[in-house]
Amino acid sequence: MKIIPVILFLTVFNSAAQTLLKPDRVFDGAEINENWVVLVEENTITYVGEITGTKLPKKTKTIELKGTTLMPGIIEGHSHLLLHPYNETEWNDQVLKESPVERAIRGTVHAKNSLMAGITTMRDLGAEGAGYSDVYLKKTIEEGIISGPRLLVAGPAIVATGAYGPKGFHDGVTVPLGAEPVSGIDQATESVRRQMGNGADFIKIYADYRWTTGAPSEPTFLQTEIDAMVQTATTAGKYVVAHASTPEGMRRAVQGGVETIEHGDGGTLEIFKLMKEKGVGFCPTLAAGDAILRYGGWKKGNDPEPERITQKKKSFKLALESGVDIVYGGDVGVFPHGENYREMEMMVEYGMQTLEVLKSATSLNAKIFHLDKLGKVKIGFLADIIAVEGNPLTDIKKMRNVKFVMKDGNIYKNE
């Protein structure tokens, strides 16, 4: 019996060798420009400006994008493709009851949803108990097996022994953990090397966390341990980022040489100024805390503001005052993949200028994440381009309506 191979095709439209994109306006990663067009040849941007300023190659295909703003593909700075919203399944149960295989399958859906929402690059901040599934998601995207953003992945992430979950079991029970535990310089160094060797693009550490369920966060790693992990990573051409929400945890991570601080709920003006001085970016993840409180029953706009929100607004205001680089990243996975716009809306709501939010989600994140040819609509840059309905500079909620998605010169969405 002859077996006929079955080939599954992705919904991807290869653009013509030359494609001219004609929106109403272009946000180039720095400012809005009216009546500009963008020419893409293969996977590279070859012209940006008024149409009278260029001679189009023969057989150029024109795509009319009336009523839209063309802009660089969004670079999501803090995500978890292996997680789904906690009001569907609590974090503990995702780690304990959903196999890495199931979570990877879910991750393929999350990756596609992200791309369709205009996220063309994503930094994934840890597989949360799913091993190196994020590494393999990245591989399958790069090989064209599934659709998704360009990925930068952290692998399992690293925690101090005893400082991470799931918790709540007696000491005779061994359960899977959401990250890799280490103690001491030798173990910390070994873990960094192992994770890099297994495909992690960067290393995520937990500079502070709750030692027991319900307790406040406290510093976890000693300064010498953080120093060793950063030195091990940077020697190999990688970098380290830190989950940190206490002033001391943030201070140790910054002094140790991490490149970004994630969350920073308890950040002080002194700490944020130190971060600016050291060139450390701040990813506030506003949308995650907002979502968790809503899952707990808080009715935003009707109920009194929870203390956690009040504190978050305060620390974010201090960060803005300090001038530290604000990294766009919402901790998506806590809330649905594809609703990444929530973080942008909250950055504006909490006091950040809309133009700065758009820069954060494009050109600034590209700079901080060492993505030299992404984050701008500029000649010579890779053709990761999206178009949104209307003008997000005058209404950030327009980021909800992504009409066009191109990644690496290929069109994934054109409504």
Number of strands: 20
Q: Would you tell me the overall average pLDDT?
A: 95
Strand content: 15-25%
Radius of gyration: 22 Å
Proportion in helices: 25-40%
Q: Which sheet architecture does the biggest sheet show?
A: 9 strands, mixed
Number of distinct helices: 11
Coarse shape: globular
- Counting helices, strands and paired strands, the structural category is alpha/beta
Q: Which parts are unreliable, with pLDDT below 50 for 5 consecutive residues or more?
A: 1-10
For the record, give the distance between the C-alpha atoms at the N and C termini, rounded to a whole number: 44 Å
Account of the 3D structure:
This protein is 32% helix and 24% strand. It is α/β, with parallel strands linked by helices and 415 residues long. Strands 1, 2, 3, 4, 5, 6, 18, 19 and 20 form a 9-stranded mixed beta sheet that branches. Strands 12-15-16-17 form a 4-stranded parallel beta sheet. The N and C termini lie far apart (44 Å). 50% of the residues are buried.
Task: Note the topology.
Elements: E1 13-14, E2 18-27, E3 32-34, E4 37-41, E5 44-49, E6 61-72, E7 74-79, H1 91-97, H2 100-116, E8 119-124, H3 133-142, E9 150-153, E10 158-160, E11 180-182, H4 184-197, E12 203-206, E13 208-210, E14 217-219, H5 223-235, E15 240-244, H6 247-256, E16 260-263, H7 269-278, E17 281-283, H8 286-295, H9 307-322, H10 341-349, H11 354-368, E18 385-389, E19 402-407, E20 410-414
Parallel strand pairs: 2-6, 7-8, 8-9, 10-11, 12-15, 15-16, 16-17
Antiparallel strand pairs: 1-20, 2-3, 2-4, 4-5, 6-18, 13-14, 18-19, 19-20
Helix pairs in contact: 4-5, 5-6, 6-7, 7-9
